Amino acid sequence: MTLPTRTLGSAAHGTALTVSALGLGCMGMSDFYGARSQEGSADERESIATIHRALDLGVTLLDTSDMYGPHTNERLVGKAIAGRRDEVVVATKFGIVRDPADPTKRHIDGRPEYVRQAVDGSLHRLEIDHIDLYYQHRVDPAVPIEETVGAMAELVDAGKVRHLGLSEASASTVRRAHGVHPITALQTEYSLWTRDVEAQILPTLRELGIALVPYSPLGRGFLTGTITSTETLSAGDFRRQNPRFQDEALAANLRIVARIRELAQAKGVTPGQLALAWVLAQGPDVVPIPGTRRVQRVEENVAAAQVELTADDLAALDAAAPVGAAAGERYPDMSGVDL
User: Fold this and answer.
1) Measured CA distances, 127 to 58, 64, 75, 93, 120 (Å)
2) In whole angstroms, what is the distance from residue 208 CA to residue 182 CA?
């Protein structure tokens, strides 16, 4: 099986970056889903094996952030790609700062001086000499986006970063940022149960020649059909507090998944593969980054790139999960999202 490639950014703007059609989100290997891959542990060995299997299957885009862990996920990715750097497009992020004493406490920092400090920390932990795609993880409302992106552009000039990205930024913010330095990609949540970007953000990205990198394209695992109750989730899993997994919202969302399961069964694929195929079908400028720490799951996800959806398939999925169908907010606190 050969995994096709897609292009992030635009050749016209000098931002074109070739990557695999699907990337690998590495966050869950270290944080938020109950996993804590400590150095030398079985969890870490499994996570590294998953990254290696992804690379063997043709995945080239690995996504991490300095806030995952915090910091431990970048070290994990750095260890995994040692000796295979030329096979990998490394994407990481800065801007969400967690309290070392209490990682549940965090703030957003987009100051130019922090940008310069953060990139050096990431390069050191990843053990690489440049970052291929560097995102601002969340927009800092206290710092004009022009100042933050201006500092990021300096990193490109210095050779520390090759391409710039934003995460969870509004259409207007993306436009302003792109006016300072060409933006290659916007990372934001996008899936069959999170389609908000279709209204304003995706049209703006396409006007400007910016790619969309959807995180949680499987709805935080929900669209795989394997989660029916928060009781099956580990104690440290943040989905236990996520509004979409609570009570009435969960019951409503399970009805969406039931229909997706029916459609997947009729097509002879898994619900997760059908959900990923739908994201891939939204355009050649869309590169989802499903996350997993299991070899079996990365194999299943990569196989989704071979699933071909007909017009009837797409219409049935659109009817099953129209815009706004999911019950509940995406996060318990949406204040960090630039709407």
Assistant:
1) 22, 14, 8, 15, 10
2) 9
Catalytic residue among 33, 68, 114, 215: 68
Q: What are the structure tokens assigned to 81, written together?
A: 């790609």
Burial of 275 (0-12, 13-18, 19+ CB in 10 A): buried
Q: How far apart are CA 103 and CA 199, in angstroms?
A: 34
Q: Edge-to-edge, what's the strand order for the sheet holding 89-94? A: 24-25, 61-63, 89-94, 131-136, 161-167, 185-189, 211-215
Strand, coil or helix: 306:
helix
How far is it, in rounded angstroms, from Cα 229 to Cα 240?
9
The structure's pTM equals: 0.94
Tell me the C-alpha distance between 317 and 298, whole Å.
23
Distance CA 226, CA 229 (A): 9
Mean pLDDT by 10 residues, the chain (339 residues): 91 93 96 66 91 98 96 97 98 94 90 98 98 98 98 98 98 98 98 95 98 96 82 71 83 92 97 98 98 96 98 98 90 75
159 within 8 A of 43, measured Cβ to Cβ? no
E strand or H helix at 93: strand 89-94
Q: What is the number of other CB atoms lying within 10 angstroms of the CB of residue 38?
A: 11
Strand pairing of 131-136 and 161-167?
parallel
Structure tokens at 150: 């201006």
Handedness of CA 140, 142, 145, 147 (dihedral sign): negative
Rounded to 5 degrees, what are φ and ψ at 291? -105, 145
Residue whose pair of structure tokens reads 């260890």 in the numeric block: 79
Catalytic residue check, 68: yes
Cβ-contact 251, 225 below 8 angstroms? no
Alpha carbons 146 and 151: distance in angstroms, whole number: 9
- Per-residue confidence (pLDDT) for residue 100, from 0 to 100: 81
- The length of the chain is 339
Beta partners for 194?
191
Two tokens at 271? 């619900």
What residues are paired with 136 via a beta bridge? 94, 166
